[in-house]
Amino acid sequence: MTDPARAPAPDTFDVIVLGAGPAGAAAAMTACRQGLTVALVDKACFPRAKLCGGGVTGRSARYFEEIFGTPLPPELIDTKTAVEFHAEDRPLGALPQIPPMHLTMRWHFDADLVARVLAAGATDLTGCRVAEIDTTTPALTLSDGRRLTARVLIGADGVNSPVARALFGRAYDPARIGFGLEVEAPAPPGNADRPLRIDFGAAQWGYGWDFPKSGSSTIGIGGVLSRNGDMKGAMAAYLDLLGQDPTQPVKGHHLPFGDFRRRPGRGAVLLAGDAAGLVDPITGEGIAYALKSGQLAAQAAARALAEDAPATALRRYRATLRPIHRAIRQARAIRLLLFAPLFRPAFLAAFRRSGHLRHLYMRLLAGEIEYPDLARATLRRLPAFLTGALQRGGTKPPPARDA
């Protein structure tokens, strides 16, 4: 331990942001633009490797421009306007014209975000490991003994969030967490011109993806961990299906997958992005909610500090998160129709027949519609889903009775 008599003097900020991915960068940029002093802390130096499909949806692009004041830089993205859907080794249909779906390499994307935040005036503490988190002050002690204090601490430190562990004893519920496996495969000739590919059921209560980019293909599967006893086997099977080497090394990481924290913090300590569980449980999209929640967390911090009441930051933040929480709840309800064994065959049959449903799915990703719109379209087909599921299970629905 550092000798208290020789401990370095504290460095004090209005806001400390721990984690410099999309959620942390959005929080730090927003706080800087509010005129607050900001420290951006991350154990990694940027650019750094990050396991992620790299899908930047229309919703993400809109949030990016709102927060950083400029459109997505074209050099960071490959834009796709076509998609193929598959399930259980069978095609579900293709859409040749979809709302633009952008693909990025997180190595470049996150480094660009960090550079923007530092140019806006944040103190650069990337490449600094945290030894201790004090959620009461709040404060961080770095591994070199330096102590940072803040009026508000924003934990944007991922699904394994040390800030969440310091607050609640654990970062996530292991019974509800998701898990993903991924490879960055070499790009075959013409790769950049291939459509997106999404495979429902490549993992249980999840899906697989093949995102072709100019320099590589990001291929992965993700699903609820407790429902997948052999994720590595499922990944090998998916790679083989795509004509890829099933023995190539894969990387894995946990996914919140819709298990959001209803109370994302405590007082002057807030959680954003994956640390708050803000990942869509159907699409697996996390970048959009990361950007938006980081922005909302910093806005709540700024309002609390303007009234010299940092302990009210969480209350303010929770109020603005309600639309995101509501959307995730709606997605979890719809997820039953997509992934539950009883309903999945009927849903996939309807998805195969209905170009309208496929378009709605992609419009949802683009941010053109919200889950209530998808829910209405899905629920209109619910009687057919139920009848088909019951008949396949050998049970006929009860006869109608006169009133």
TrEMBL record:
<protein>
    <submittedName>
        <fullName>Putative oxidoreductase/MT0587</fullName>
        <ecNumber>1.-.-.-</ecNumber>
    </submittedName>
</protein>
<dbReference type="InterPro" id="IPR011777">
    <property type="entry name" value="Geranylgeranyl_Rdtase_fam"/>
</dbReference>
<dbReference type="InterPro" id="IPR050407">
    <property type="entry name" value="Geranylgeranyl_reductase"/>
</dbReference>
<dbReference type="InterPro" id="IPR036188">
    <property type="entry name" value="FAD/NAD-bd_sf"/>
</dbReference>
<dbReference type="GO" id="GO:0016628">
    <property type="term" value="F:oxidoreductase activity, acting on the CH-CH group of donors, NAD or NADP as acceptor"/>
</dbReference>
<keyword id="KW-0560">Oxidoreductase</keyword>
<dbReference type="Pfam" id="PF12831">
    <property type="entry name" value="FAD_oxidored"/>
</dbReference>
